[in-house]
Amino acid sequence: MRRGGGEEPAVGRAKVGGGAAVEWSVGGYEKRTFAGRSVGIKPSVGAATRQVRLYVSIPKSGQPLVAGLFAEGRVAKDSKTAIALPASAVDERGTSPTVLRLRASKVERVPVQLGVRDELAERVEIRSGIQAGDTILVGTAQSVSEGATVRLVGEETSGKQ
Predict the structure, then answer these.
(1) Does 96 reside within a domain?
(2) What is the number of structural domains in the chain?
(3) 100 with 140, same domain?
(4) 59 part of a folded domain
(5) Residue of 76, 75, 74, 69 whose CA lies nearest to 26
(6) Which residues contact 47 (CB under 8 A, 6 or more apart)?
(7) What is the DSSP string of the chain?
């Protein structure tokens, strides 16, 4: 669809509307991220750059931003509360994805249903198979064999008898 001399802006094929959460970084402000809300969008894509101009409301902060700097960021079209794990915690080598869960001091392999992936944050939504509060093995702990007995360090000092 053409409008205003360019393509209609889209993020993941979903239109970006006013009020969407925006997070970005700016060259010259090393290791600092900024957050705000979109208030408008220029309805055309730059022919040479393929960039879209997005207008963002920025809350006041202790360090002022300088005009003319290049910013790179993300726009959240939707947000929801869900169980999410690091993508590396999910084993997708078999016929269905699984995770290793610790239950009653034993490691068990649990099939899970995956939802939305956030490639940039390297996280994946878990729609079913585990619950909030479950202990999931990640990183080098994933090399622990299913059925192994595991004791969490600090468990005996947490007041449990």
Answers:
(1) yes
(2) 2
(3) yes
(4) yes
(5) 69
(6) 6
(7) -EETTEEPP-BTTB---TT-EEEEEETTSTT-EEEEEEEEEEEEE-TTT--EEEEEE----SSPPPTT--EEEEEES------EEEGGGSB-SSSS-EEEEEETTEEEEEE-EEEEEETTTTEEEEEES--TT-EE--GGGGGSPTT-B---TTGGGTT--
Query: What's the CATH number where 145 sits?
Result: 2.40.420.20
**How confident is the model over 24-44, as pLDDT tens digits?**
888 777 778 888 888 887 778
Say what the pLDDT of residue 109 is: 95
Residue 159 lies in a domain: no
Q: Give pLDDT, residue 25.
A: 84
Tell me if the pTM is above 0.90.
no
Share of the chain above pLDDT 90, in %: 30
* Domain span including residue 14: 2-76
* pLDDT digits 0-9 by tens, 104-136: 999 999 999 999 888 777 899 999 999 999 999
Whether the Cβ atoms of residue 98 and residue 90 lie closer than 8 Å to each other: yes
